[in-house]
Amino acid sequence: MRPLALVVLLAHCLAAADPDPVAWKLERAAPAPVKAGATFSVKVVAHLQEGWHMYSMKLIEGGPFPTRVWIPENQQFQQAGAIRSEAPRTMMDQSLGMEVEVYEGAATFTVPVKVAAGTGSGAANLVFNTSYQTCNASLCLPPKTVNVQTRVTVVK
Q: Which of 41, 29, 126, 112 is nearest to 77 (CA)?
């Protein structure tokens, strides 16, 4: 196959695939307003389309791109402890020739969040970044980073 034809074929395959087989959403564990200086939890939830998986948060030497969830700097919020997640499924990845950990269907990451002590009363935007790679039985999409956000009401 000629190089140009291969590039066109690859571009067509990527265009035919859903641009992102993952839909992210946030679920607050405590829906009431939170006090400045307080800690609360947020569930960062990934819903994967059927047939797709994404890799766990575990970094494997020479392995796939791991999922990562974090709170970017320059907010009134910061991560207040280790992120907890459901146990991923272990599978043999034939293309990598190694066992990997994956999430299918849905994955929930529970993030403890602390409101900065000096935060004033009112609504504030809480932003999370997520980076991940999704694959199906025949295709892996390039790693992607997206942000998801929610409004949090802060009180003194």
A: 126
Amino acid letter for position 60: I
CATH assignment at residue 122: 2.60.40.1250
pTM given for the model: 0.84
| Residue 151, domain member (yes or no) | yes
Closest to 110 measured CA to CA, from 56, 41, 58: 41
Q: Determine, yes or no, domain membership for 71.
A: yes
Q: What pLDDT digit, counting tens, does each position of 1-57 carry? A: 554 443 334 444 544 555 799 999 998 765 579 999 999 999 999 999 999 999 999
Residue 137's φ and ψ, nearest 5 degrees, are: -65, -20
